Amino acid sequence: MPMEKTFDAASAEPRIYAEWEQAGAFTAGANAKPGASPFSIMLPPPNVTGFLHAGHAFNHTLMDILVRWHRMRGRDVLWQPGLDHAGIATQLVVERELARTNQPSRRELGREKFLEKVMEWKARSGGTIIEQDKRLGASMDWSREAFTMDPAFHEAVIRVFVDMYEKGLIYRGKRLVNWDPHFETAISDLEVENKEVDGHMWHFKYRLADGETYEYVETDEDGTEIMRETRDYISIATTRPETMLGDGAVAVHPSDSRYAPIVGKMVHLPLCDRVIPIVTDQYPDPDFGSGAVKITGAHDFNDYQVAARNKLPMYRLMDMSATMRDDGAPYAEAVERAREIAAGAEADAAEIDSLNLVPEKYRGLDRFEARKLVVEDITNAGLAVEVPSSDPRLGQPAQRKVEPEEGADVAPDDRLVPLVEPKKIMQPFGDRSKVVIEPMLTDQWFVDAEKVVGPALDAVRSGETKIIPESGEKVYFHWLENIEPWCISRQLWWGHRIPVWYGFDLGTPMSGGTGDLDEVDLLKLLLDGGMVHSGDVQKVGAELPEVTGGFQDEIADLPSPLSHARIVEVEDRNAALHALAESLAHYATDQDPSKLVYPVWRDPDVLDTWFSSGLWPIGTLGWPGPEWEEMRRYHPTSVLVTGQDILFFWVARMMMMQYAVVGEKPFDTVYLHGLVRDEKGVKMSKVLGNVIDPLELIDEYGADSLRFANAAMAALGGTLKLSRDTIKGYRNFGTKLWNAFRFAEMNGTFEGRSPQAAPPAATATVNRWIIGETAKVREEVDAALDGYRFNEAASALYGFVWGRVCDWYLELSKPLFGADDAAVIEETRATLAWVLDQCLILLHPIMPFVTEELWGTTAKRAKMLIHADWPTYTAADLVDPQADSEMGWVIELIESVRSVRGETNVPAGADVPLLLVELDAPGRAALGQNDALIRRLARIDTITEVAEAPKGSATIPVRGGSFALPLADLIDVGAERTRLQKSVQKLEKELGGLRGRLSNPNFAQSAPEEVVAETRANLERREADAAKLRAALARLDEIG
RNA sequence: GGGUGAUUAGCUCAGUGGUAGAGCGCUUCGUUCACAUCGAAGAUGUCAGAGGUUCAAAUCCUCUAUCACCCA
C-alpha cells in the first residue's frame, strides 16, 4: 500500500508512545551497552496540581533530546520523573476549590480533614501533567515516578532535618520574616515580589520631652548657614505611619550636626503615652528626608537591624492576618509595663511579644484603615509638618490654579498644609497571594546557610560542577557569597511537618531540684501563671519515641514524683496547659503519682517546599534506605536542565543540601534557560491572555513540530520566543522528510531490503558524496549536543535533510534511477535507504514520533528506533574528497545556470543549449561524469564546446573555466547587462578588501600562513571571475 | 542604587577575531514524473552610537544610548 501524503501525527503518536511503553523502552538502563557509563537526569518536579505549560514543554523537550540521544548511544540512562507537593500553591488551589464549592473552610475543617481534601484533590488532578508529558513524547522512567510526599521521601526529608539540627545547621529563633497575611505564613524572600507602587511620604513632628528646645541649623554644601530656628520637635518621615505606634526610638546619623544637640534626649511618641530616645546609627541617610528615621523594629527590615544594634524593644503591632492587634491586656496596662521595660525592667522576648501597645482606638483595624486614622489623628494634634501649599514636594494638586480676579487679595499659595509627598515606593507582594507582605516578628526555623554554602561555592569555582551559560555562574556566586539565613518553616498544613516537640520549661518556675513536689510548688505552677509564662524546651527527632528520652532527662531534676511524670503528646500549647493543670490538680487531691503527666506538643508548622525538593536528587534514588547503594550509580546526576529563575530557589539549595547530607555534588552540569515567551517576547500570563497551550499546539501540528521548534530556539542564553509560524515551519519539515520516504518507496528503495548500519560501498559520485555529507552532519550533531547547543543540532539536521538530501541528493538520484544500469540503480537504492535511515536516527531525539513511524514502516528492524544504535562514523572515514569536490562543482554550475536563466527571463520550461568556452581537466571530468544530471537539473538540451563565446551570450564562470548560454533569441539583454554589472560591482567591493589586506605588509607578517594563502587564492579566483564578467559585458555591448 | 544580559535583513533570531547567515515574510516565475505543508530565482544590512586594541572587529576592551530581567 503506498504511503499517505503526510504523516498523521494525531493518530500515530499515541500508538507509538504506547509501543515504547510496552517495550519498556524508557526503563533505567534500557539499551545500555555492557559496562556503559551512567547518564542521569532528574526531572525538576512540577507541582502536583500543575498542568503542562509552554515552559515545561520546552524544558522537558531538551531533557528528552539528551536522554534519547544518550540512550541510543548505549549509555546507562535514567530519567527520573516525579511531582512536587508544592505546599503553598496546592493549599491555595484546594482552599479556593473549597470556597468555590461552598464547602467548609480550611479552619472549619481542621488539619486532618483538610489534608484529606488535599489528598483527594491530588488523586484527582495529580496525574494530569504526566499524561500531558506523554503527549509530548517524554521518555521518562515512569516506573520510578516519585512524589515529594511519598513515605520514603518524607523519611528522607525528616531525617535530613534531624541530622542538620544535630550538626547545628538548623536553629529556631524569633526573627523578622516576610509574612504573608493571606496565607498567614512566613515566606522566603525569594517568594516576595517587590513592585513599585504609588505611595506617600508623611512628615511628623515628635516633640521633645519636658518641653526642651534646641537650635535647628541647616547649612548648604559650603557650610554656609541657610536656615536656623528654635525647635521643640524632631521631624521624621515615613511611608508607613501606622507603624509609629510601635516605635522604639528615633535614629539619626552620628555625623548629622543638625541633631547633635538632642542625641540621647527623649521624645513623645504621638498618640501614645510613651517617650522614646533619639539614638545614633549608621542607617539613617542625612540627605534623605529630614535625616531622622523612626525605628519600628518589629515591622521593618532595616529598622530591625537598627533596633537589634541599639537594643531597642521591638513591639509587634499586628496579628497574623495583619490587622492591628486586639489581644492581651488593655492599652493602659501594656503601656505601663512598656515604660517599666524602657526604664530597665527585665523582660524576655516572649513577654515583649505579648505586650499589645496598640491604643484601644486602633485595635482590630485593618492596617490600611489604621494608617488613615493615624494620619488624621496626628494632623489633628498639630503634629504634622506643614508647608506652604506652593511647596513643589506636594506634587501638583488641581486646586492650585487660582483665577486672578478672585484671588487677587488672598495669598492662597502661602496657606499651610500638611506635607504629604506623593512618592513611588517599593512594596513587597506575596508571589502567590498577591497581598502586601508584612514584615513580622515570629518564631521560625532557619537553615544557617552560611555554614553550608562553602562546598557549593567551591564546586562551581573549581569546575567540579559547571553552570551553562557561564553568566549563570556569576549570578550564582553573587547570591551565595551574600547568603542570608534560610527560613524553612511555613505556617501551612500541607507539607512535611517539622519533627520537633515542645514541653514546658518547669525548671524555671520551680526553685528546687531535689525535694518532693509540695504545695508551694503546685501553687506556683497553677496559680501564679507559672506554666503560662514559663519558657518552652524543644526536642528534635523523627518520631515521638525518639524525643521522649530527651524530655525525661529534662524533667528529671523536678521535684518527685513530677520528675517521673508520663510523657504524653497533646495537640498544642493550650492543650498542654490544660493537661498539666488537670493532672496536677488531681495529684493535689488524690496524691496518685501514676496519673501525673508531662504533656508535649508537636510544632504545627511544615517545612518550606524547597527544603524537601532540595533533596530531590538523593531522595528519589533511595537515600537513606538500602537501595541507595544500588541506585547511587546515578548520583551525582549528569545534568540538571532548568529555568534560570529557580537558580536560587532550587539549584543552589540542592548544591548546598546534597553536600551537607551526603557530601557529594548533585550534578556535573547545570543547564539554565530562560522563560518561554510569546512571539513578541512578552511573558505569558493568563491576565494578558497570551498563554500558548502546548497541548493545543500538539493537537494542531504534532508533538514533533513543537519539539523541533523548542530545540531550534534553545540557543545558549537566548530569549525563548515561541510562535505558531515557527512550529508550522517545522511541521512542514516533517512533511518534507515524510515525502522523501515516499519518493524512496516509489523507487523501490525498501523492497526486500535488510537494513544495514554500515554505509554501502558506492561507486557513483553522487552516492559517495551524500554518504560523506551524512558523516559530516553526524559529527556536527554530536558536537552540538555535546555542548548543549540544541539549536545548532536542530539547524544542522534541518539544513542536511532539506538542503542536502531533499534539494540535491533526491534530485541528483533521479537520473540514476532512470538509467538502465541495474547495478547503479541497486547501489542508489542501497545508498538512499542508508542515508534515510541515518536521517531517522539522527533526527529521532528531536522528532521521535515521525521517525519511529518511518523506521517501523520501511523495513523489518531488530529494534525500535528509540533503541537503534547511534552511529560513530566520521567525516574522515566517509568523506571522499574527490566526490566532494566534483559535486561541489556540479551544484555550483547548476545554480549558476539557473540563476542566469531566472535573471534574464528565460522561460522556465525551455530547454536551452550550453556552450563550453574553456575548462580544465578536473572540470571536464566532472562535466563528463554528470552530463545527464546537469542537463536535467539545469534544463539544458545540449552541451557543445566552442572556441569563443558568441556575441550576446550570457557568461557563466565556474571553477576552472567558463560556460556560456547563447541566448540571443531568448535573452533579455538589458537584464543580463544589469545582472553582470551588479555582479562586477559586488566583486569589486570584495576585491578591494582583499587587495587592501594583501598589500598591507603587516598582514603577511602577522597573520597565520594559511589565512594569507587563502586570501591570496581567493583574490586570484575573484579576479579571474571579474575578468570573465567584464569580457562578457564587453561582448554584450557589441550587440547592444 | 547594585548585578546580569540584549541591541545584526521587514519580523523572529543564529553567528567567540579572517568573504555578514537562517527561518518566516516579501517580489517574480513554475502544477505529469516524492512533497503547493512544494520547487526555482531575487531583493533587503551604518551588525545601536563613539572611541580603543589588532595585520584584521558584528566578535575583544572603554564609554554612551535604549531595552529586558534579577536583587535591594
TrEMBL record:
SUPFAM superfamilies: Anticodon-binding domain of a subclass of class I aminoacyl-tRNA synthetases, Nucleotidylyl transferase, tRNA-binding arm, ValRS/IleRS/LeuRS editing domain. This is Valine--tRNA ligase. It comes from Mesobaculum littorinae. CDD domains: Anticodon_Ia_Val. It is found in: Cytoplasm. Residues 16-503, 600-717 form the Aminoacyl-tRNA synthetase class Ia domain. Residues 767-913 form the Methionyl/Valyl/Leucyl/Isoleucyl-tRNA synthetase anticodon-binding domain. The keyword Membrane does not apply. The gene is valS. Monomer. Residues 970-1039 form a coiled coil. Residues 387-410 are annotated as: Disordered. The C-terminal coiled-coil domain is crucial for aminoacylation activity. ValRS has two distinct active sites: one for aminoacylation and one for editing. The misactivated threonine is translocated from the active site to the editing site. GO terms for cellular component: cytosol.
